[in-house]
Predict the structure of rRNA-processing protein EBP2.
Amino acid sequence: MVELESDISGGSDDYESESDIDQDSDSALQEAFAKGILKPGLNIQVPANDLPPPPINNVTALKLKLAKISNDFPWEERLDITTKPAVLAPELELQIREEEERAVKKKDKTALNEFRRETLFHQQAQAAVLEGIPKLNAAGIPTKRPGDSFAEMIKSDSQMERIRKSLIKKKLGMERAEFVKKMRTQKKIAKKVQTEAILKKHREKREFLNKVKQFKKGKLKDLDFLTEGSGQKKGRKGGKGRFKGPKLNKGKKGDKGSSKSGNKKQGKKKKN
């Protein structure tokens, strides 16, 4: 609250000082008017010494100065042409008439004036070309670019060479990055195919062993699973299949011996 009151009091002091200045200026004007210094009216008399000098139009000096600063260059250096507008083409003249009829109906000549102005510019340029091109041809100045010229190079050859090297460097960098990306993709695909092939091999082996077990247990009576896929595996070296046939247990050596000894014993018993 104290700060707010101080701000208000400060603002009132500024206002009082401005009003005091206005009162002082008014009192000074009143004193000057009372002494006769300030007289009624809007115009005041200026001493003769304060008047501007009369204008000087020295035609001779102006012509001498113009001749001094002017340069008589040939037309090939100036390329200035002053002509009247060319003859209007019949189709443009017909179009202007149509536009005039439309403007009369609409009571709005803004678009018509704009069209006339553009047509006048076109006629003026056409007349300048018809007069200027023969002059250029007579002076031996070419008016057409060569067939292999597309634009004038503003930059120097050294700068363009640096730009060319920079563009080639960027292009090679992009090609290298694209090649690395392509190789990574191919590597991922090859790894995926290899993994799938290994999984397929293990799966086929597991199925084959399961069928062998089923055959041993008597659940399967035919051995067709041994020849499955043989037509697809003929191209392998040696003409061998992917998996070798199952080694069926025909009995161990000890079992064979025991069976033979058992047969001998039976024979001895029969002899007895």
About this structure: Residues 74-138 form one domain. The mean pLDDT is 74. Helices lie at 2-35, 59-69, 75-78, 90-106, 110-138, 157-217, 253-271. Residues 157-217 form the longest helix (61 residues).
